[in-house]
Amino acid sequence: MLTKRIIPCLDVDAGRVVKGTSFVNLRDAGDPAELAAFYDREGGDELVFLDITASADSRNTMVDVVQRVSEQVFIPLTVGGGIRTLEDMRRMLNAGADKVSINTAAINNSDIIGEGAAQFGSQCIVVAIDAKRVNRNSGKDEYIPTAADPSLALDDDSGWEVYTHGGRNPTGIDAVKWAVQAVARGSGEILLTSMDADGQLAGYDLELTAAISGAVPVPVIASGGAGNLEHLYDALDRGRADAVLAASIFHYGAYSIAEAKEYLGARGVPVRPTLA
Fold it and tell me: Which of 11, 51, 174, 242 is catalytic?
């Protein structure tokens, strides 16, 4: 049986790890290389590094920070933020990343998914989806832009809309439909973040996670909302995720990786043991 993965996330802004709530109100959480080394020692299964303002600021992910992080870890490293071209992907992989995560670029040019998969292998291409629940029956005026591809458009009065540029720009694209297309184009993994749950510490959006997990044949990483160890279990069990991404509960010392794995193992979740 494949083990479930525990993945600390380093959201980086201006060279520092930060954590916010629903993508805003960022606060400092430390140096990325130091935290990366810490999580590697602690038994993290992988590490995700996201330059969260790179796309919004129209700049490239900081190669020097990626190099410093990669020198500190011996576990798989995924890098995202500001990756727009195959050359950007190659630069990150050469800097020490094992996978690249694309969000805005994939929406703007979905061909880059297949091109990246052909060049580097599907296992290197992670499509990140930042999704926010919509409900046009709520009585609130809610602006839903028109999706460029009609086949991806939200087609009812509820669902989850994809956002780009670090959660700033709505697209009118249905998250489940987009996940299916991204995988069909060559993505080897989906990194799914609930914007509503992000930083709230109240649990993952299990309905969203289960909808995406049930729609695609590749691993889904659940992100956004972990506040305690039961939330991790729920995402893996009820949400049917293959991995859980967490930041706040690890960065600020609420729980350790070892405690998370011990808890999950006791509840029957297969996890890779941490070294004594």
Answer: 11
Cα–Cα distance, 182 to 86 (Å, whole number):
16
Out of 130, 198, 234, 242, pick the active-site residue. Answer: 130
Active site residue 242: no
The answer to whether residue 198 is catalytic is no
User: How many angstroms separate the Cα of 39 from the Cα of each of 83, 86, 96?
Assistant: 24, 29, 17
- The span from the CA of 255 to the CA of 195, in Å, is 23
Please, which residues have CB within 8 angstroms of residue 49's CB and are 6 or more apart in sequence? Answer: 10, 12, 32, 36, 65, 66, 69, 77, 78, 79, 80, 97
> What ranges in 164-215 are assigned the alpha helix state H?
175-185, 206-215
Enumerate the β-bridge partners of residue 24: 21
pLDDT digits (tens, 9 = 90+) for 68-125: 888 888 999 999 988 999 999 999 999 999 999 999 999 999 999 999 999 999 999 9
Residue length, the chain? 276
**Helix count and strand count (H, E) for the chain:** 10, 12
